[in-house]
Amino acid sequence: MNKKNIAILGSTGSIGTQALDVVRAFPESFEVAVLACRGNANLLIQQAIEFKPKQVVILQEESYAVVKESLKNQAIEVLSGEQALCEVVTLDEIDVVLNAIVGAAGLKPTVKAIEHGKDIALANKETLVVAGQLIMDLAKKHNVKILPVDSEHSAIFQCLTGEEENPIEKIYLTASGGPFRGKDAEFLKGISKEQALKHPNWAMGAKITIDSASLMNKGLEVIEAKWLFDLEVEQIDVIVHPQSIVHSLVQFQDGSIKAQLGLPDMKLPIQYALTYPKRFKNQFERFDFMNYPNLTFEKPDLGTFRNLELAYTALKNGGNQPCILNAANEIAVAAFLNDEISFLGMSELIEETICHVAYKNNPTLTDCFESDAESRRVAQDLTHKIHKRKLY
Q1: Residue 363 near residue 320 (C-beta atoms within 8 A)
Q2: Percentage of residues in the chain having pLDDT higher than 70
Q3: Residue 13 has what DSSP assignment?
């Protein structure tokens, strides 16, 4: 395998730092061409000094001077802002763009990278939630691979290898159930952000951890799966699997089911996306069945965890509704983490935002950006009203 040049967007987050662990393990196979992050200047500087990329981007422009000064003796170009993020992914030498930016901010650089023929290792599920049809059409037009990094979608992707001629009957996305599996709405009324941030199996960033606790993460994954694997809504099912060993399953038209199993470690799907179609021998801990004698499965509680049902409804309605859902959820999670709304209030805010934003049946990319911005404004206004009611 020739050495791959990688751009890592979101290099200081959970996925980005683990991707760099993979690069460290295979220095003869990977070169880091670009590192980008939102605002963790100190870690970005450390990463840049170690990996010596051609360019680094820090989205928060107020941190630019610190990064620039710290890297002045390095042969590294330092840039800042959203426009710079979209420009660096077009570098000729880049082979793969690993997009691990949180939220809809990952959409624009993904579009730019695809237009310049770069394969995408996609950890930013919001890209496909906001503009799934447009992104997949664009990837097809430019002959670009979309390689899933999410453990569930990577599992489906791996199960489908060698099955190109065999239609999918159904896929099952597994969910851990988060820290509140089995709890009822009465219990959830009083939970704190500290409780919600304690995921039982995975170490992740704050936003995705809250999404996992509310099952919105699984809802976003349902929407992402629809576009990645060209499925109808009815072909996508969610099952709760507390042990997080079976990462997802594919059922074929003859009734056979394939599953991908392994310990809950994101480095494995990251490595597979970067080395695809090959598998590299690594030193990761191996799964032992004797340590997990019981693997259990159950239905998700859609009545209590309404975010998953809201995501299914948005996908069925189509148009710009998944985009509205995603934008409202980003505002809702931020408001919950800022103690402005309750855990259950997130679902109420999302549902109300969907009702207030105009529906568009066949949105263009411009429509998606406009719907995203409008949904954020509406959700923010609703948040302020809810917060005022709490105060008075």
Answers
A1: yes
A2: 98
A3: S
Give the C-alpha separation, 44 to 382, whole Å.
35
What DSSP character marks residue 237? Answer: E
What's the DSSP call for residue 143?
A: T
pLDDT band (50, 70, 90) for residue 390: low
Residue 392, pLDDT > 50, answer no
Query: CA torsion sign, 210 to 215 to 218 to 219?
Result: negative
Q: Please tell me whether the overall predicted TM-score, pTM, comes out greater than 0.90 for this model.
A: yes
The neighbour count for residue 275, using CB atoms within 10 Å, is: 18
Tell me if residue 114 falls in helix, strand or coil.
helix
> In angstroms, rounded to a whole number, what is the distance separating the alpha carbons of residues 342 and 193?
9
Grouping H, G, I as helix, E, B as strand and the rest as coil, residue 280 is coil
Return d(Cα 44, Cα 65) in angstroms, integer: 13
Q: What local confidence, expressed as pLDDT, does residue 190 receive? A: 87
Crossing angle of helices 365-391/345-356, nearest 10°?
A: 130
Q: Coil, strand, or helix at residue 96?
A: strand
CA dist., res. 269 & res. 255, Å (int): 26
114, HSE (Cβ side, Cα atoms, 13 Å): 25
CA distance 205 to 309: 23
pLDDT of residue 89: 96
391, exposed or middle or buried, with CB in 10 Å at 0-12, 13-18, 19+? exposed
Contact between 243 and 249 under an 8 Å Cβ cutoff? The reply is no
Taking CA atoms, 376 is separated from 104, 247, 286, 291, 331, in Å, by: 11, 32, 43, 45, 7
**DSSP string for 347-361:** HHHHHHHHHHSPP-S
Number of helical H runs and strand E runs in the chain: 16, 11
User: How does pLDDT run across 193-244, given as a tens digit for each residue?
Assistant: 999 998 777 667 788 899 999 999 999 999 999 999 999 999 999 999 999 9
Element containing residue 387 per DSSP (H, E)? helix 365-391
Q: Which two tokens stand for residue 201?
A: 């199996």
Q: Which of 148, 220, 193 is nearest to 343 (CA)?
A: 193
Q: Is the pLDDT of residue 388 over 70?
A: no
Please write the tens of the pLDDT for every residue from 327-340: 999 999 999 999 99
Q: What is the pLDDT at residue 201? A: 73
